[in-house]
Amino acid sequence: MFYLPKRKFVKPWEFGHTKKTRVKGIIILLQKNWSNPALVDCTLNPLINCIAPFENQKEVAEIQSEKKKKRKEMNLNKDSVESLVAQIQGLSGNLSDINHLHNLLKQSEELLHSESTRLVSSLAELDPSIHSLGYLYFLKAILSAPVSKEEANGLLVSIARFINLCVVEQIRLAPEKFIFICRWFKDQVILLEAPIRGVAPILTAVRKLQVSSEQLTTLHPDFLLLCVLAKCYKTGISILEDDIFEVDQPRDFFLYCYYGGMICIGQKQFGKALELLHNVVTAPMSTLSAIAVESYKKYILVSLVHLGQFSASFPKYTSSVAQRNLKTFSQPYLELANSYGTGKISELETFVQTNMEKFESDNNLGLVKQVVSSMYKRNIQRLTQTYLTLSLQDIANTVQLSSSKEAEMHVLQMIEDGEIYATINQKDGMVRFLEDPEQYKTCAMIKHIDSSMKRIMSLSKKLTSMDELMSCDPMYLAKVGRERQRYDYDDFDSVSQRFNI
């Protein structure tokens, strides 16, 4: 301690918290009170010598304390991850324990993200068929951090195995994490240009995430996209056979119908493709989306291939946004439909050649070529309505084919596809057109009709049930109440009735 004028006792640390501020404060105080410089120097030097060791010791102690604290935190984190693994192993037995584990994992998310680099080795201690929830949280933490290419290849195998073995009840407790992992998996297989690797796992993920076959999950579009890229059209068709009644996000529905339409086009199921694309075009929308525009372009082309015609008018239930804007973005396709309607193959081919780059940039050139090919078929079908027999050469001349051999190939293909019924006499090159041989009395046809009737009845019941639910929905009733008049004419009896009381 030091005795200074006007103050009894002054401790060095009362001048500040650091060495500089303390010394500076003492100097200022000395200069204010003592006018003798020599006295200041003789007082200051011992003071510095006194403060310096004190400061050095304190700083060293603080550094050592900080190091100990960090070391303790590292050990705590290490123990916490290992403890968490043990808790996952012990609490994955029954439902009550799973719920407790879920809360525990939620609280440990920050720890998992901070220790994401160490979690890969911890996955080996967990069984995805038993510890699905813990495995899911670990994977999510690992994938949230940057992953190298080598690590990604190893994780693809682990994720595929996890999707196949995971317990449905556990992953449904954290569906957003499961979706994140599946989408990361999908993006990686596309990045590796191996989409076929993701088809089977994502299909399994869709089935596990679905509460019922009527629900459209957010993974449906991802699965169909992989099927399109891998050209696994038959696998994609299997999921399109389900009737969808529950949709969470409109975008998922749009993509589901768009990719589904592409798969049906690949399988030559143009009727189903037309239905799916029609759903996108006529669906309610507040703003025009690129998905709707691309669907409308394909809708025009599929209509020409499947029906031989296209109507530019929209159904009444189509949104006003779609009716106003879709035609503007699809002008070349509407002109193609007009050219197709003339029935002149030369004009159609000229138009296609003129707009080749546009169709190719839209990835619709293959479908456009099918439109051109379908015109030959339509012209041949028109001949069946006029002639009973006709030579192959006459067919070639009428339909504008280059030779009778080419006409024969078209006729044979149409007979095989069931588009016409005819026989070809190879001797004289004559084609005889026949009536539809189906008598609708075979066992197979009766079975088909019966199954169709049952499906229609089931859909009718479902529609009635949905109508009843909607009619009782408070939000729907409030909206309808605002938009309609207080009383409608139909609310009153047209004929007065008398009641005897």
UniProtKB/TrEMBL annotation:
Ranges annotated as spanning the membrane: none
Keywords carried by this UniProt record: Cytoplasm, Nucleus, Signalosome
UniProt-listed Pfam families: COP9_hel_rpt (PF22788), PCI (PF01399)
Taxonomy, superkingdom: Eukaryota
Gene3D superfamilies referenced in this protein's UniProt entry, alphabetically: 1.25.40.570
Subcellular location: Cytoplasm; Nucleus
Assigned GO CC terms: COP9 signalosome; cytoplasm
The protein, known as: COP9 signalosome complex subunit 3
Source organism (scientific name): Nicotiana attenuata (Coyote tobacco)
Gene name tied to this protein: CSN3_1
